[in-house]
């Protein structure tokens, strides 16, 4: 035992305890360096990152978190519904450790079956006949296939380019452009409009493509007094010129959307218009004897705005389904761990991805759906404007 004097105070130090503390400090520092070294030695994609932590936390619902907090302070559980039950912590621990959800067999099959990850996602609102067997498919063609020039049915294009005239809207945004429409997969085309192929994975064209549907949507919104910016940039050409792969389409379109936001403070809503790769029987509906290309709303979970984006998509689905029963296939939430999981929707809380039809639909059917969506959205927009005044 030894003693130390410091400003009148005497401390007695046990030499054995001091040695133990010293050893523990040294071992602790060594352990810290070893763990840090192991984490930084992982190959890219396997290390511990904020996205990994976020993915782990996504397995814990907000209700389960409140139950956990309630174990320390029961006051928190008072905010839960009466029928709320505590989570099964053994199942939760198993899911965190293995990334397997006992209640969702896709979490196991998705790791084993090639291409099964295409069906990864949560059905938030299921439209008519929508289930996990007909989830949207995002085809990723080789660049040479997407960039190939194909012959189109020009007479169909000219016929479809007409827009029915209606009386001018009695309400307008006063020259302000409040809606921005973009097409991250701008070359997605439709087999009935192409003469030289009937292969779904070849349904791509430089001009006769989904941008025509987005353009029609913009014109229909303008007819109803809503100012619109429609961007028809050839994303495929941008990718080709930069030597980028198809998976970087959203990186290219992100630059365009960010520039639009910086140049126009009036923009409120952002629609990324696509077409699905599912066949005709899934993407077509007949309403009052008229065929429409069915719509589908997709929201990415990998951004802070996703709950607001999800709310917008759900409201539009419900309005569309009420006026045009069966037109909307529903609302899909793509997880943060997916191929994208964001779709540039972090740039605005009023941003959604809209699938219009599929590879077997015609432009005419897509135009009908664009008009239907424009009618529903314009009602939604002007009703919200009345509330805000």
- What is the CATH fold-level name of the largest domain? Aminopeptidase
> Roughly how much helix do the residues carry, as a percent range?
40-55%
User: Which descriptor suits the 3D outline?
Assistant: globular
Q: What is the mean predicted local confidence, pLDDT? A: 82
- Helix-strand pattern: EEHHHHHEHHEHEHHEHEEEHEEH
CATH architecture heading of the largest domain: 3-Layer(aba) Sandwich
Structural domain tally: 2
Number of helices: 13
Q: What is the CATH class designation of the largest domain? A: Alpha Beta
Helix and strand composition category: alpha/beta
**How many strands appear in the DSSP assignment?**
11
β content, as a range? 5-15%
* Termini Cα gap: 80 Å
Q: What kind of sheet is the major sheet? A: 7 strands, mixed
Which regions have little confidence, pLDDT < 50, spanning 5+ residues? none
Describe the protein.
This is Stage II sporulation protein P. The chain crosses the membrane at residues 21-42. Keywords: Membrane, Transmembrane, Transmembrane helix. Helix content is 41%, strand content 15%. The chain is globular, with a radius of gyration of 27 Å. It has helices at residues 15-41, 50-57, 62-70, 89-98, 106-112, 143-147, 154-160, 210-223, 235-242, 249-263, 280-283, 306-323, 363-388, and strands at residues 2-6, 9-13, 122-126, 177-182, 227-230, 269-274, 284-287, 290-293, 295-300, 328-334, 351-356. Strand 1 (2-6) and strand 2 (9-13) form a beta hairpin. With 389 residues, the chain is an alpha/beta fold. The protein folds into 2 domains: 15-118, no CATH class; 143-388, 3-Layer(aba) Sandwich (Aminopeptidase). The mean pLDDT is 82. Helix 8 crosses helix 13 (363-388). The protein has a 7-stranded mixed sheet, with helices on both faces.
